[in-house]
Every structure is written in C-alpha cells, then in structure tokens.
Amino acid sequence: MRGADLLARTLAAAGTRYVFTLSGNHVMPVFDAALEAKLSLIHVRHEAAAVHMADAWGRLTGEPGIALVTGGPGHANAVGALYTARMADSPLVLISGHAPLDELGKGAFQEMRQADVAAPLCKASWTARSAQTLGEDVVKALRIAREGQPGPVHLSVPNDVLDARTDAGLPEFRREETQEQQDLEALVRAERPLILTGRLQQPQLEEATGVPAIAMESPRGVNDPSLGRLAAVLKRADAVLLAGKRLDFTLKFGRAFAPDCRILRAPVGALANVCRRYVGGEWAAEVAASLAYRPPEWDAIRAGDGALHPVALCRAVQPLLEPSGAILVADGGEFGQWAQACLRAPRRVINGPAGSIGSALPFAAAAKLAFPEAPVVALLGDGTFGFHLSEVDTAVRYRLGYLAVVGNDACWNAEYQIQLRAYGSARAHGLELLPTRYGAAAAALGAHGEDVTRGTDVAAALHRAHGAGRVACVNALIERVAAPTY
Length: 486
Fold this sequence. Notes:
6-stranded parallel beta sheet, 3 domains, alpha/beta, globular, Rossmann fold
C-alpha cells in the first residue's frame, strides 16, 4: 500500500470519524485513500475553518479532531486557527501536505518550512520522513494531542511520502490516561477552596472532590461577564487548585488571589480517583450565587420597535437552549460577550482565551456533527460573520442544521468602544460596517435566512428558523453598546 493508505487506515483504526479538510495538490492521495479506509471527509471552504472544526470537535468530545490541508498557502491559511486551539488546550492534529522530500531546497512547488511555521502554536510539529514510519507518526501525533495538557499537534507529510509504497502494518494505538497524582490535602482541608479549569469540566471535578469548580474560558479572565462576581470569589478563596488552567494574564499572573491563598496544580486526570471529601455547603452556595449574579437592571430591558438591546435578543434565544444536550456556541467581540453573559446551555463552545473571532460557524458545524440530535445555536456579531460566511455552504451540503444568530450593529464594535474610551467620540472612525442583510446572504447559499429590523419581530423569526429543518441564520439589528461589566 501507499503511505497515504497507511495514514488513512491508521486514522480510521484510531477511531477517527471525520476529517475536516480542504483539497489541494499535495493531499489528493489521502482523499483517494479515504475511500477504502471509510473516512468521512467534511470539505470546507477555507483551511482555517477545517482547523476550527477540529478544535470544536476536540473540545466537545475529548478526542483529537483531525484537520487535513494542502501544503504552502493551504498550510499558511490553516496555521492562524491553531492559536485559538492552543490557548484553549484543545486536542487536534493538523496534517498538511508538503513539497516532496527529494525536491526540497530546489524551489519545489509551494515549498515552505511548514513545521517551523506551525511549531510556536503547537505542542509538537514535525515533517514525516518515510512512508514506512508514517503510521507511527500519526499515532505519535494523536498521543501528544491528548496526553497531559491537551493541545494541537502538526504533522507535515510530503507527497512523495504519501505516494511511496510500504509494507508497514498498522501501528498499535492505545489510549493511555495519566496516572500522575498530587497531594490534595491542602485543598480538601481548606475553608474556602476552589478548582479552576480551562475547560467545561467542572461538573466532573465537583463530583470527584466536592470542591466548587469554575471553568475560565474567556480572555476577559476575572472580568468574564459570564462568571458574575468571580473576582470577589477569587479574593476570598484560601486554596485554589489549577487543574489544566494556566496562571496567566486571565488570573493577573496570580494577583487575582489573596496574598495568603495557597496555589496548587494538578492535571485534570489526576482528580479522577480523588474521593469526595470536602464538605462546605455555605462556601459552595456563596460561590454559586456570586457566579450567577447579573445586574438587576437587565430584567427591565425589553424588545421594542427598533434595534434590539443584546440582552433582549439573548432572552429571545434562551428557550432554544433549554433542551437536554443543547449546545451554545459564542464568538468573541462585544456581542459575543453579551451572549456568554446572558445565555445558559448544558454544553458550550466559545472563542476561548485567545480572544480571537471568526470561529463560530465552523464550531457550530462541528458541534452538529458530534451531536446530531442536539440543538446547536451560535451567536456572533456581524463583523465575525464575515470571516467564514462561506461555511454556511458547508453546512448546507452536509445537512448540518444549526442556527446562527447574528447581532448586527453595523460596526467593529469592540474596537469602536476602545476608541470611545481612549480617544473620544470625535476620533472614533474607520470601524463602520453596513447593516448588511446577512440573512439574505445565508439564504442565497441555501440556508433558511431572515433579517430582523424590529425587536418585536425577533421571537417569531427565531421560531421559524428553529423549525426550518436545515441550517438557518437570523440576522437582527442590535444597539451599539459596550460589552457588559459589573
């Protein structure tokens, strides 16, 4: 068989269900090999979208998502999305085609030092050197993506390696969980302990230990509007366990805690066998109340005849996220912050600590693939929607019936708010967009699309879109307001 066959069959043997990909010269042997390996290819419209989909798959399932792109410019397009995955500790493997080994240094077609380009954004990055060992390369990449602190891994595969014949058998693939343990006596004996994690694993962590656990996913850190009065809770804690969470800028490099707070560290896997020993009902109730806090004046915000306040739009969306298993996808930007603060769902995927924007539509598509029966609702701003509008076409082709809700303030509003605060309204410029009919644009790509200009019409539009039976987009005009702070 060819190296391409070994690669595809190794992925299939490891349990890979979908490969998120965009075609190109260097990877066509893998497209061919996917037929016999029975790998399902999800063909996107931009390489970054393939990585974003693999990212969301990894976050939601815990298994590495697989992105496959061509070499040179295809690889370059994909690399930017790795940063979002790396900062979110998301397990994925990016496999990039590559110029032939025997042509390197001679001006080969689309030659690039791809492993070097991807290395700063990955746990590991290398170029395969032989068809004989390509299966072992794939298994190594999957293992590194999952082990310890999860994260993205890159493997470049020259197309002469893909075409070369090999008699290598399929390598053994084992799922090994870490056995690393840590003395947690200081945590369970504390009066006001907390566990902080970078991913939505707090129900399992609380069950294992009895200690209140908080997922910090946002680049706003202690000021994350979806976590209420988190800053006050952190200052009150006397012991904090960082379980897969960095002591980084989101925690003010440790200044978010009281000076005498004890900081502990352990991988999430180390808590799997911890016996539930901490009992602290009053502290747990205080933490829950603080995280649930929202300004009472929000209750008075209602939809009117004009543009919607983001709170009113989110209130209209919330009923769609009530079913068991529903998934909320929220992008970055001012409207994304409102969505994260106002909406609750059993599962969610957000842009993450990278502070990037543009991933919501690929995230939603991957979420629908991972959980076909679950309602998936993505909220994103109008600037964000433009990044991957063409991925609506991908959702139409693969019948991925998520709902995208666009909060349209005709502006790059996050940066506009920076201008207002830093320079004043007279110097706020260069950030205007048009009140584009994104619902009509989505409809032109085959989706159900609606454009809402009056707040009183939004509930009916959401109801129609939710029942459309296919990917849908509701584009609603919203007020140009700053992200929530309290």
